[in-house]
């Protein structure tokens, strides 16, 4: 429902053979409901105002008077008016209501307060100004408050079908929304979708809020469970390529956010996954026992011998161990000693000890190793690219998503 | 230096035998400097305004006119006034200056803009209103712009020592800071310290900003590298207890944030760490080769035999494998079959497969297993409590930190 909320000023309802601002906004916008806010001094002319509003042809709005009467000694106190009027406007705000504020009626402080409500409060309202018929100051033009209302209506030049529309809607930015937007952009630039969602969730009447919230909740909930974002899931990439790409994008995002402990822990799993997948697809080199990868020693006795020899050199024994990153690298070195992948696996091996201190010994990451982590992230991307046919555009997935979200903000 | 910045309106400097707002604020606050902002329309009376200001007894302010003249067709456009006046006010802002804005002079748009600067800009200013002498609308009271200024000064009833102070300072909240505070509280409740820090980092003149930023940057950077927060690091807890507690608190925080994949991956490491530490301290059961834990088979041949038997039952062989969570649970079952810990280790075992799918197969976590994760988080806390002497107050570490931060907000 469209609701016009207006204080009643000395110019209302009719002055100088023309609509006062309240009557004029009603004539142009024809709101279904009009809430009049009286001051002690305007209370007397309530019936005149109602009669004037009812004089608009083919229009029968619901006209109510707000319970609160503005005190004469408060109508020129700006912050009191701001607090009081905010309160009143708040009472009429709801998803179903489209609230219009009059920006021209009553004292400068009331007008300023209405303006401030439109521009700085959380309320998603509209605010309308009305120019004087002569388009300049009313100074020197008398008031018609004492005249007979029927005569005023009769002689009102605006009371005809071809009246001149003197309304002007204030379409400027709302500072509150603008500030929120700035905050959201800061969080978005840090890929903190959960934070953006939480802030939006506390907003009323933000533009595009439904679509924004849905997009942000989707991606945030997906990330939380290491899910595959819809676009990637719907792509033609194989399910292994999707898993690896998704894991890499998560690592890169965390790296940009500075979550180094997280990056370290996941990097090894990613490269292990890629190598396991590659070696198994190319060479059928793995047998799974209890879901754990073991060497297909029957098919590759020479690799078994190599593993046994390596262990012996370290004074250990090899017995069908569960395969891991280091074994995969050994296998690759054995089978394809010139493979591109081997240019990068060294960078992953280099961080393995630091990684285990964080993952298993629960120790803090030492920032002096940051450069190695950075190299390892880069290496993991090259390993991914060398193992799967993944088009380059996928690597800007989160930045593309941010652009999409920014368009809605 | 106290500086009054005021536009000049039709009521200035004197109207109806009383101070206009500009003159009145000067009379009450006696600022050392007064900056007059003229519009084209008020420019003519500059000398009258200066003369009136100089009529205040025992007061000789520096009176300057800002270079910028407001255009007549712009004084009723809010956005222009806000931008222009913000700019002017910004020029006078400095640590040494205490800036007062007049909230009563000139057009409603200028008043609103001044109010907005006080309430939503980053500037730390004060804003003062002046009530009319009759404490109500000025309607029907003529302007005195054409009268002789000396006569006006002579007959100004406020120009005496016992004048009535009609000023009223706007002490309302700054909306920008208030909105930011609300946003920060939402993010803080989600333990998103990085987001809180990023938003604060974009703020100027926020109360306690230095201390807040330091606290938030500290905790955020600590979390990123799995560091031990200072308070925990300085406690009397053993270094192992500190590592385990810190890891648990990170898991719990991530659990509250909904980061289930992360929780799953870390839970196993935590419990593995606790059991390894407990069994080694109590029974000296581990030998380390290449930093990896192996069974001290010389000391515990019966456990070795048990492991070999278990493997054989599954058609496998046991050969000095690297110990992990499941081995530790087996050892504990063997050595202390009635130990409290065993009431909870089952919950960790239950999520092990789901965990490996996320950690190693890079698959999405299936939310149908959420209840098991929740039970496992609870179990991990009990395992921690049963293994280390950690006082209960440590478990509210992040909530206590949030309370501390909230006090500064």
Structure report:
- The structure is a homodimer of 409-residue chains.
- By secondary structure, the first copy, chain A, is of the alpha/beta class.
- The first copy, chain A, has two domains: 2-172, Hypothetical protein VC1899 like domain (Restriction endonuclease-like) (Rossmann fold, 3-Layer(aba) Sandwich); 238-389, Four Helix Bundle (Hemerythrin (Met), subunit A) (Up-down Bundle).
- Helices cover 51% and strands 10% of the residues of chain A.
- Chain A is built from 17 helices and ten strands.
- Chain A has a six-stranded mixed beta sheet with strand order 5-4-1-6-7-8. A two-stranded antiparallel ribbon of chain A has the order 2-3.
- The longest helix of chain A has 24 residues, at 260-283.
- The two termini of chain A are 26 Å apart.
- The mean pLDDT of chain A is 91.
Keyphrases for this structure?
homodimer, alpha/beta, Rossmann fold, Four Helix Bundle (Hemerythrin (Met), subunit A), 409 residues, two-stranded antiparallel ribbon, 10 strands, 17 helices
Helix share of residues of chain A? 40-55%
Q: CATH homologous superfamily of the largest domain in chain A - what is it?
A: Hypothetical protein VC1899 like domain (Restriction endonuclease-like)
Q: Work out the number of β strands of chain A.
A: 10
User: Which runs of chain A of at least 5 residues are low in confidence (pLDDT < 50)?
Assistant: none
Query: What value does the average pLDDT of chain A take?
Result: 91
Pfam families (chains A, B): Cas_Csm6_CARF, Cas_Csm6_HEPN
Protein name (chains A, B): CRISPR-associated protein Csm6
Domain Csm6 HEPN (chains A, B): 243-406
InterPro entries (chains A, B): CRISPR-assoc_prot_Csm6, Csm6_CARF, Csm6_HEPN
């Amino acid at each position: 429902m469209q609701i016009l909320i207006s204080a009643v000023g000395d110019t209302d309802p009719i002055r100088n053979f023309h609509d006062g601002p309240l009557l004029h906004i009603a004539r142009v916008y024809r709101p279904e409901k009009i809430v009049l806010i009286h001051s002690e001094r305007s209370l007397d002319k309530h019936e005149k105002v109602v009669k004037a509003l009812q004089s608009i042809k083919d229009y029968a709005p619901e006209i109510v008077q707000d319970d609160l009467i503005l005190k004469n000694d408060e109508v020129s106190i700006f912050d009191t008016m701001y607090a009081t009027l905010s309160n009143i406007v708040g009472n009429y705000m709801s998803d179903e209501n489209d609230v219009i504020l009059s920006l021209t009626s009553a004292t400068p402080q009331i007008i300023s307060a209405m303006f401030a409500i439109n521009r700085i409060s959380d309320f998603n309202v509209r605010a309308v100004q009305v120019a004087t018929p002569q388009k300049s100051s009313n100074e020197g033009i008398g008031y018609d408050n004492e005249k007979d209302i029927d005569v005023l209506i009769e002689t009102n030049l605006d009371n005809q079908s071809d009246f001149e529309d003197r309304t002007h809607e204030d379409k400027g930015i709302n500072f509150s929304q603008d500030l929120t937007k700035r905050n959201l952009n800061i969080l978005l630039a840090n890929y903190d979708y959960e934070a953006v969602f939480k802030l939006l969730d506390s907003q009323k009447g933000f533009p595009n809020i439904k679509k924004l919230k849905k997009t942000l909740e989707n991606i945030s909930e997906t990330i939380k469970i290491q899910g595959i974002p819809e676009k990637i899931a719907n792509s033609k990439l194989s399910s292994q390529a999707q898993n690896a790409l998704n894991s890499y994008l998560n690592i890169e995002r965390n790296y940009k956010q500075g979550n180094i402990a997280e990056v370290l822990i996941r990097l090894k799993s990613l490269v292990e996954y890629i190598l396991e997948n590659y070696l198994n697809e190319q060479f059928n080199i793995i047998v799974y026992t209890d879901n754990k990868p073991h060497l297909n020693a029957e098919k590759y006795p020479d690799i078994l011998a190599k593993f046994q020899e390596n262990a012996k050199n370290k004074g250990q024994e090899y017995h069908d161990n569960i395969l891991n990153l280091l074994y995969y690298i050994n296998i690759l070195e054995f089978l394809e000693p010139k493979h591109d992948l081997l240019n990068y696996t060294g960078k992953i091996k280099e961080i393995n000890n630091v990684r285990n201190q964080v993952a298993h010994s629960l120790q803090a990451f030492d920032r002096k190793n940051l450069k190695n982590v950075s190299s390892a992230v880069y290496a993991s991307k090259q390993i991914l690219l060398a193992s799967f046919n993944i088009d380059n555009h996928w690597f800007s997935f989160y930045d593309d998503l941010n652009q999409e979200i920014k368009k809605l903000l």
